[in-house]
Amino acid sequence: MTGVVRLAIWSGPRNISTAMMRAWENRSDSVVVDEPLYAHYLAETGLDHPVREEVIAAGEPSWERVVESLLGPVPDGVRVFYQKHMSHHLLPGIDRAWIGRLSNVLLIRDPREVVASYVRSRASVEPDDIGLRQQVVLYDELAAAGTPPPVIDAADFLRDPENHLRALCEQHDLEFTPRMLSWPAGPRDSDGVWAPHWYDAVWRSTGFEPYRPRNPQLTGQPAEVAEVCLSHYTYLRERSGLR
């Protein structure tokens, strides 16, 4: 599909990834897909996530078929196929050759903030739940292939959403529209079936919230997980910024 931008944003959980999806979906020339590899991830790992069976039933457990849809045809008039991905959904059994055919961006967040938010909804957390290690692997693979992806820190983005979105549009030869900065509150048909468990804040939102510094106080295992992930975050943080 000549001229279609297949924009893949690879994030970890408890980031601004869903708000970012809203921004791109609010363009008149875009379609979005919400975590297309989630069903495969749950089916393969056996993890007990909220509405696990519904996610698998509603999604596509075959990663090969998911990839076919991500690279396949889009509706007439669509210029941007926005793909919201979780980096930890990239399990070892998935061949990654197809990722290089997408326009990839890594969206990162301080793991101390991620873990503090994560454990408010989940009883426990492990380093691989956060996705930063997987983002480092993905960054290095793409860089080795000659296409290091842009890295955006959510804190930087929220300090200046418009300029970040303008830069992404310019990189992909797209016209920026102010529609990307605000959207109607409420659910969307494109939201995954897990949305009622995770998207409360986004459903209430009508735009990006201003950046607020946080100083989460972690103890025990959550603190240990954040510490393990901090080196991965620092590695990517050093490679972040507008280009």
TrEMBL record:
Keyword check for S-adenosyl-L-methionine: no
GO molecular function, one term: hydrolase activity
Record-linked Pfam families: Sulfotransfer_5 (PF19798)
Keyword annotations: Hydrolase
InterPro entries associated with the record: Class-IV_PLP-Dep_Aminotrnsfr, P-loop_NTPase
Hydrolase as UniProt keyword: yes
Domain of life: Bacteria
Family statement: Belongs to the class-IV pyridoxal-phosphate-dependent aminotransferase family.
Matches recorded under PANTHER family: AMINO-ACID AMINOTRANSFERASE, AMINODEOXYCHORISMATE LYASE
Protein name in the entry: HAD family hydrolase
